[in-house]
Queue: 2 jobs
Job 1
Amino acid sequence: MRNRILLSILGAATLLFPLTGVAQQRGAFGRESTESQPDKELTPGPGWKTCPRCTNNKQLAAANKTYKVEGHAFNPHDLSGVWGNNGMELDVKNVPPFTPQGAKMFEATRSEIPTTNSRDGMLICDPLGYPRLFAYNYGMQFVMLPDRVLQFFEWGHTWRDIWTDGRKLPDNPPQPRWLGYAVGHWEGDTLVVEGNGYDERSWISEDRRNRIRGFAHTDQMRTVERYKRTSYGTLEAEMTVTDPQVFTQPWTTKGKIELRPNAELWEYFCVPSESDEYNKRLIDAAKTSAK
Amino acid sequence: MRLQRLFAIAVLATLIAFPLALFAHHSRAHYGTEESTTTGTVMEYKWRNPHVFVVWEVKDQSGKQTQWVGEMASVTSMIADGMTKDSLKQGETITVISFPSKNPGSTEALIKKITKSDGTVVVDNSRAPNLRQP
C-alpha cells in the first residue's frame, strides 16, 4: 500500500512538474534576452536618454561601460540618479505572521478570479501608494535638495518628499495620504527614511506569489527605509514595514538597486480610459474563462 | 490504512495545487500552453498601456473570418524588446505565434512572435526563459 502511495505521488509530480516549466517560459517581455531585442537603445533623439524599463540587459551592460560605472568616484551622501526599472520587490518569503485582524484583512483582498487580482485598485488606476511604489515603480530617481530628498517614480510620474530639515513625523496626521509623510536623516553614510500617515486604501504590495491577494494595512502602518550607496552603481536598500494591527512582527526586506546610467524617467500614467479598454478586451475575457 | 490514504490525498492535492498557483502567476493563467500559428491582417495596433495589443483578422478555409486580440506588455517593456509605435500598421499581413486563451471560443492570446510577410521579425520572445508581467 505504501509503495502504491509513493508511486502515485511520484507519478503526479512527474506529470505536473513539466507543466510548471512550460508556464514559466512564456511572456518575458522586456526582461530577459529575446531574439528581437536591439543592441542600441531607443531615445527620443541626440542628447536624450532612454527610459529605465526601455533598456534590455545587453544595453544596460553596454551603458555601464560607456558611463564607466565600475570604479566611478561617488559621494556616499549623494544618492542622485535613476535607480532600477521595476522597484525592489518585497520579500514575500519573510512575511511575518498576521494578527487575527491582519489575517481577515489579507483574506478580504482575495480576488474573485484566479487569473488576476480583480480587487486591485491598480486595475482602475487608483494610486499605488507607499510602500507599494517602492516595490513596483518602473524606475525611481533621487534628487538631493538642501532641505529634502525628492523621490520620483516613473509609475504614475509622481514624487514623494523626504524632508531632511529636522522636522519630525506628525503624531496624528490630519489627512492620511497615499504616499504618507516622510522624514529623513543620515546615520553615517546611510539615509534613514521614516514614514507614517498612510491611506488605508493602498496595499503594502500585491502578493506576487500568485497575485490573487494583496497585503493590506491600517493607518497605523509605519515604514523605515535605509539607503546606502556602496558604489557609484549600487544602492543598498532596506524596507521595514510595521503595522501592529496587521503583523505580529516587523516585515523587513533587504536588497540592492542598480543605477541606470543611460536612463531618465519617462512617463507611465495609469490612464482610466486606457485601462478600461484593456480590462474590457483582455481582463474580462480572463474572468469569463475562470468561471 | 485510512490515515495513510488521507495523507496520500493531502500530498497529491498539494502537488496539484502548487503548479496551478504558478500558472496563475502574473495574470496569465487563462492563456494555454499550446502554441498557435496564424496568418492574418492587422486590424488594430494599440501602442498603449497597461499592455500593448494587436488585433489581427484570420480567414479560415471556409472563408470564416476571426479577429484575434494578442496581448504583449507595457509600452516601455516592448521598446526593450525592439518594438516601437510604428512597428505595425493596419492592413499589413502578419504571422503570429501565440498562446491562445484556454477559454473555449475565446479569441484572446498571449503573443510570442510576430513576423511580417517580408520576413521582418517584429517581436520574438522565443528565448525568453521565464514568465513576467509588467
Job 2
Amino acid sequence: MRHSGRVAIEVRGLTKTFVTGRRRARRTIEAVRDISFSVEPGERVAYIGPNGAGKSTSIKVLTGILHATSGEVQVLGLVPWRDRRRLTRRIGTLFGQRSQLWFELTPLQSFRLLAAIHRIERAEAQARVAELAELLDAGDLFDQPIRSLSLGQRMRCELAACMLHRPEILFLDEPTIGLDLLAKQLFRDLLVRLNHERGTTIFLTSHDVADVEHVARRVVIVNHGSIIYDDAVATLRRTLLATKLIEVGLSSAVDIPALDGVTVLEHTATAARLAVDTARRSVRDVLDVLLDTWPVADISVVDPPLEDVIAEIYGAPR
Amino acid sequence: MPPWVGVAVRTGARRVLAEPSALLMQVFFYLLVTGAVTSLWRVAVEANGGTVAGYDARALTWYLALSEGAYLAVHSRIIEEIGDDVAGGTVASEMLRPAPVVGVRLATELGKALPRLAVNCGAGVLLCLLTVGAPPSTAGLLLAVPAMLLAGACNLAAMHGVAALTFWLRDARTSWFLYQKLIFIFGGMLLPLQVLPPWLHDVAVRLPFMTMTYVPARLASGHVEPELLLVQLGWLAVLAAFATSAFAGGERRLQAVGG
C-alpha cells in the first residue's frame, strides 16, 4: 500500500458543534466533544455507538464533508476539510443506504464514469476491474443491470466501486444494513480479505455487533459525543464485563437453590443458564457447586454476547 | 476539459437509452401536447385573419414543436430531485469524489437530455411536415439545432442553480413550482414572446428563460437571427457560474452546519 508510514488517522481534541433553531430560540448542540484517537495503517477499527452518539458527524469530519469546530484532524497527513478533493483520491467511502452506482446501468458502465472521475486511464481501469472481480468474486455481476441484482450482490459491486481507485482507507457506514445473514457474512469476509491482501485500513460504523466481531480488531465506542471505550475487540468482553455465563445440560430435573452472586436466566427440566457476577463469586467456585450437587450432563462457560456488553457500556453513566 | 465530462455525458445518455419504454412514453406525451397546442393556435390564427403577432399557422406550428421539444427534453423535476438529495445526504456523499458535484450532475443530466432531444426533434419535424409542410426557413431550422442544445444546457444550469438554494431553504418544491411558472410565462413555451404585452415582452427578453425554449423555436419558425445563439451562450456562461457558485456556497454551508 501507499501508506506514508505515518498514522492513517490522527484525531486530537475534535469538537464539532451545530447551531440549530431560529434567531431567538437558537441553541448550540455539541455533536462531538473533545475526541482523540489514532488509527494505524492497515488497522480494522469499528467506530460504534447508539443513534445520536456522534458517529456520523465524526465520519463526516474525517472525510472532509464537515469541518471541525475545534481540535486537530489529519487523515493520511491531510486536513480533511481543507484538502477534501486531494483526500478523496486516497480514501473510499461506502454508505450502506446510498448507492454510487446507477440503477439503470451495469456496474461496468458505472465504473467507467467513476474511473474517469478518478482520472484512471481506460486500460488501467479495466485491469483494476478485472482484479476486483476476482478479489470480490463478482465478475459475473459486473455486466448485469444493477436493478436485476440482489442487495447482497449490489453491495459487492458497491464495494468494487469504492475500491476502484485503490483507496488507502475505507470508511464504511452501516455497510451490511438490509442484507440477509449469508450476504452479511460474505460481505464481512470480503472486507477482511481486502484488508489482508491490500492492507486497506478499515474504519467501520455499524449497529450490527456481528460486523464489529467479524471485521474489526479494535473497537472505539462513542456515546454522547465522547469516546467511552477504545481497545481490542477481544479484550472488550474480558475487561469490561464482570459476568460469565454458565450453560448447563441436565440429565434429570433439579431444583436450583439460591446461590450468592448467581442469577438464573433460564431453567427447564433439561437445561439451565446462569449468569455469574465474577466480582462476587468466582466461576470456579460456582462450577464446583454445580458439579458436586447437580445431575450435570454437559457444562460450558461462555462470554456473554458482545451485544450485551456493548449495551451495558452504552448504558453506563456519563 | 476534464476527462470525466465526456464519460458523464455518455453515461447520462446510456441511462435514458436503457429505458426505451420511458423514452417512447415521453415522445408520445410530447406529440400529444404539441398536437393539441398547435391545433389550438391554428384556430386562433385563422380567427385572427391568418397571423398572430407576425406568426402564421405554419410558423407557429414549427415554433411550438421546437419550444415543447426543448422543454420536454430536460427532466423537469431536477430541482425537486436535487432538493431531496441535498436533504437526504446524497449530495454530501458525492462531495467525496475528486470532481465538482455540480459539474458531474450537469454533464450527466445533459447526457440524459440528448436522446430525448433527438427523439423529440425527429418526432416534431415529422409532425410539422405532416401537418403544415416544410419549415419557413431551412437556415432557421439549421440554426435551431445548436440552439436546442444550448437551450437544454441553459435550462439545466438554471435548474441546478435554483436547486442549490435548497442548501439554505430546505424545501425545493416551492422553488420548482415557481421556476416552472417562470418558464411558461417568460420562456415563450406555449406562446411566442411577441404575443405578450409590450412591457412584459421587454421584461421577458431580458431574462434567461427565453434562452430555454423561445430561442430555438423562434429560429425554427423562420426567423434567421443567429445573434440569438450568442445571447444563449452569454446566458449559459452566467447560469453555469450561478450554478457553480450556488453549489460551492451550499457545500460550504454543508461543511459548517451539516446535512
